Structures are given as C-alpha cells and as structure tokens.
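W.,

You were right to be curious about this one. When I first looked at the sequence I had no strong expectations either way, so I just let the prediction run and decided to look at it fresh. Below is the sequence, 356 residues in total, followed by the output.
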Amino acid sequence: MSLQRVVVLLGKEARLNATNIFFAYSIIFPILLSLLVAMVFGDLFSGEPRLGIYAEGESQVIRLLTEKESLQVRVYNDPEDLRGDVKRGAVQVGLILPAGFDQAFREGEETRVHVLRWGEASLRDVVLIETAIAKVVVDLVGMPTPVEVEAIPLGNVQVVSWSERFLPLLVIMAVLLGGLLVPATSLIAEKQSRTLIAVTTTPATLLEVYTAKVLLGLLIGLFTGWVTLFLNDSLGGQAVLLLGVLGLAALASSLLGALLGTLSKDMDTFIAVVKGLGLLLYAPGILALIPQVPEWIAKIFPTYYMIDPVLQISQRGAGFSDLIGELAILLAFVATLLLALVYMVERWKEKLALAD
C-alpha cells in the first residue's frame, strides 16, 4: 500500500464529498445541536442565580462572591458590556463597584454602588443574590456574625445539570455522524455510479481506496467531536490523551460506516439499517439523560466505550491508567471492525476480479 496514493485519494475524497449533503449534515448538525443545548440548557435550567460584577479598581468583593458555589458570577472589564448582558438576561443582577470601595466601606465613608436588575429576573434569584452580597459585605468589614446557618441537603444531592446530561449524547452523535455517514455514503455512491471500479483500474488498490475513505471519516468525526467538547466547555487539561482517545472513537465509527456502506446495496437500504441501529448506537447517550438508570446497562452497548473514556478525560481528569480496561474493549471493538472490513475488501476484490 502506497502512502502517497492514499494521501492523493484522501484529497480526492474531500473534494468530491464537499458538495455531498450528508457531508455537510454530519458536520453542521452536531455543531448546531451543541450550540442549541448550550444556549438553552447551559444557564436556563442550572438553578443558580447569575450575577455580573464590574469594579473600577481592585476589590475583595469579587473574590468573595466568585467563591460562592450557589452563584454563577461573571467579572466584566467594561461596564457597558455588563449593562448589555443585564438587558439581555445573560446575568440577572449587575453590580458596579466604584474605585476604592473596600477602603471607603471599612472606614465608614459614604459610597455609592450601582445595582442593575434584569426586568424578568425572578424574585427568588434576586433575593439569593442580594443575600450573598450582604454576606460578603459583612465579611469584608470583618464584623462578627453570631448566627451561622448550615445547609443540610436531603434526598438526591448529586444533581446533574441538563447540559451535562446531554453531553454524552451530543458527543456520540458528533463522532458517529461524521465517522459513519461520510465513508458509507461515499462507498454507496461509487458503487451505484461504478466509479469504484474505474478508480481501481488505476495503480490505486481497493485497500488504498477504502483507507482514504476511512481516514476522511476519522478526521471528520475527530473534528466534530472536538468542536462539540469545546462548545460545551469540556476539553479538560489533557489535550494529547483526549485527542488520542477521541481519534480512536472516530476510527471505530468510520470503520463501522465503511462496513455498512459495503454491505448496503443502495442508499435506501443504508438509511433503513442506520434507523434500525440508531437506538443501539445512541443508547449510552440516551440513558445518560436518566440518572436513575444504572450505569451497567449503558456498558452493554459498544458505543459506551467510544464515549465514556472521552468524558472521563474531559470532565473528570482521568489519566491513561484509569482507562486501561475501557480502552482495551474499545481497541478490541476497532480490531473486530477492521478485520471484518478487510474481509469484505477481499470479497470485493474477488467480485471485481482485481489484484493488488
């Protein structure tokens, strides 16, 4: 197999597929869906009041408020940006602190603080923010507080936000759509137009043609998966390990796509197969939306091992040693798909009466 010919074929695949509706769909749809989920579920259902702060100088109030786990605090460098976000509802309350506020307050001097409020902010959130500000001001002065309130959570204390619940499904869709659709639809189109036979009459072998298609699916799945994690602020701090595991998941998706494209007689058959397999492919992401479902159920599905290591790295900071078991299963899944695809390529060689 010639690496140079594979690169040339890869460029050809990218150019030809650029006008393919499935190519555009596999890239655009996961990104749009991620943006939609981030916009709708990122703040709206988080349950935490949103406070914006601008200080004309240094102030300990900013540090004390950002340490409050019950608030979402954004610090601004421009008061006009803060005013704009309050008007739009991006933050529910805006706090503008004048220069020297801390010193003036400690010395009992008269000082003025501007508080901006979003017109549609709920009374509950405004009260929580005002209470937090009052507590911080008391802490700033160093005034002793004779009463200490201790919150004791009851029931399910491990509340997962909707944006976090959607992330597994978003990443699975991003990796699978790009990796699966592009090589499969490309193979089906070439079989129907008989261009696959024409290409293999050149020095390029059938294996090199398949390799180029699989590589294109891998690159698209890797790209859309990475962008999805980026849009959901879930890249984590281990870029190399994350890229490697995400690439392995994209490879599994691309191999599966090439295999389905080889087995499908036409596009209608392929779409029917994908619809039939849809629930099995996306099951781990769907089950993640329901925290009450035991995790072992999701582990039954092979795509769990494509996505869970990615989330372990990006969200929980897991290292390679923590993922050896899951990565071994993922590698076995990739090897199985690769052997099945090589077998199908050999069958195609015999059918087309081609030689290496």
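Here's what jumped out at me. The CA atoms of residues 76 and 82 lie 6 Å apart. And, maybe more interesting for your project: Residues 162-193 form the longest helix (32 residues).

Coffee later to discuss?

I.
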